[in-house]
Amino acid sequence: METLLDILSWALLVVGGAFVFVGGVGALRMPDFYTRMHAASLTDTLGTILVLTGLMLQSGISLATAKLLAIMMLLLFTAPTAAYALANAARLSGLKPYRTGGNREQ
Amino acid sequence: MMQILGLYNYWVFAILLMTGIYIVISRTNLIKKLIGMSIFQSAVFLLYITLDKVEGGTAPILQAGAPEQLYSNPLPQVLILTAIVVGIATLSLGLAIVVRISEAYGTIEEDQIREMDS
Amino acid sequence: MVTFFGLFVLTLLVITAIGILRAENLFAAVMLTGLFSLLMASIFFILDAADVALTEAAVGAGVATVLMLSALALTSDREQQQRRRHWIPIVVVSVTTLLIIYATFDNPRLGDPGAPVHQHVAPWYLSETPRLIDIPNVVTAILASFRGYDTLGELFVIFTAGIGVLFMLSTDTERSPLTLLPNPDTEGLRHHQVPRIIGRLLVPFIVLFGLYVQFHGEYGPGGGFQAGALISAGFILFALIEGEAAALKVLSFRVLAGMITTGAFLYVAVGLAGIARGGNFLDYSVLLDDPIAGQHLGIILIELGVGLTVTGVLLSVFHAFAARRQHS
């Protein structure tokens, strides 16, 4: 039972780390603002859920698990809202999305 | 090798200190100068907190059931707690002065302000 | 393993500082400064300074970023191009860096228990706190009781900064935030449902967490300064969502001024009560019959005073910036 929990939490942590890495690479390499926001918001949702679930499995049933659950709820509420607010602000101030083969407007 | 790793904090402190000073003396924008000053202050905090770490210690919150626990030094932490709050007080006052300068002169670049004054 | 993580974060700090140096758009520079404060908070936590990490995260990455952004909204957004290279500052700065690095080879190694800083006063504090004051958080005990004078001075520094900002930004009466009557329909995020709903959900929890940190400062990391910063961050979020008019109706400048002066007055009153009961200024042992209970009462009261003043000052400074009308 112990080793099963360990293997499961290892797998969750590694996959979560891989998603965070993909999000980071996307935030650097994507062509314009909106696609970069889309890549970076991957870190907020999927990365958060996987990494924090892996940590919760490691700490068993204790106060630390309750605190990790609270942190996960907070991050899931605030980070996508912040991404929405950023994209909305960019749209309202006139930033146009990237179109291939033509004007690339900044 | 452990000698170098043990000194890395101090080298980062030196680089941050000098970066802060360089921003203050070489950039003409007043808000950039204030940001440089806050980087300078943060470097000093890093130095003090580096001094307080004891190997094998933990945060200085006394735990009742472990009499043999080693604790890190609490005294620099008290000094830096005060310093952080004083730093933000001076930053807010500096920003208020910059806002009034911008409304009086129309710009916040130091060389243009000096030209308007002379 | 933790040391490698520490080295990684330190390297990120240097890269961020150089990024701030080279950023021409001031908005980007302010955002990078917020990131810098967050990295500093992680370093402090790795180096076992839990109270300091909480303060740096709340004050540096939270309130300082908002203040700088509101100042940027009132001035210009870009820095002008630096037209000439500055050789003398570069040479002076590089030479001083090399001198400091040369001087650090004599420093004690990180974590050395035999270093001079751990020898004299610190072991006395760690061993005498259970006997004299009996609270687990030694940092709060030193801050509030053993070195109470320093905290009184710091409280008056914040008080003075708040008064200074209000003086600066309210002498021009037609733009002053104290005579503000904005149109409630055009302020705030009226038309953006998602941030408004989520923000309204979060504000009570933020204020509740701030109160928890305030009263729990003796048993874990916390205390008056962190609590003040957190509660004012909750109210700043409310002001950003609902607009300045609604926020000033909830906590007007008069109430904020009352909070600032009450906090400072409470601190000094506790000190004078010590004299009235026969001890020294800021001596809490004589406040009640049992000296340890007196210490507890004294610490709770002055932390309350500190929390009130810090909340009042940070909120009034934010409103003074945010409610100022733009010049046409």
Strands, helices and their partners?
The complex is a heterotrimer of chains A (106), B (118) and C (328).
Chain A: H1 2-29, H2 33-59, H3 63-92
Helix pairs in contact in A: 1-2, 2-3
Chain B: H1 2-26, H2 30-51, H3 75-105, H4 110-117
Chain C: H1 2-22, H2 26-46, H3 50-74, H4 87-103, H5 121-132, H6 138-146, H7 148-168, H8 193-215, H9 224-242, H10 244-250, H11 253-276, H12 291-322
Low-confidence stretches of chain A: none
Query: Termini distance of chain B?
Result: 57 Å
Percent of residues of chain A in helical segments? over 70%
Mean pLDDT of chain B: 87
- The chain-level structural class of chain B is mainly alpha
- Proportion of residues in helical segments of chain B: over 70%
Roughly how many Å apart are the termini of chain A?
54 Å
The value of Rg of chain B in angstroms is 20 Å
User: Count the strands of chain A?
Assistant: 0
Largest sheet features of chain A: none
Count of DSSP-assigned helices of chain A: 3
Please tell me about this protein's structure.
The complex is a heterotrimer of chains A (106), B (118) and C (328). Chain A contains three helices and no strands. Chain A has helices spanning 2-29, 33-59, 63-92. The radius of gyration of chain B is 20 Å and the shape is elongated. With 118 residues, chain B is mainly alpha-helical. Chain B has four helices and no strands. The N and C termini of chain C lie far apart (56 Å). With 328 residues, chain C is an all-alpha fold. The mean pLDDT of chain C is 86. At the B-C interface, helix 1, helix 2 and helix 3 of B face helix 1, helix 2, helix 3, helix 4 and helix 5 of C.
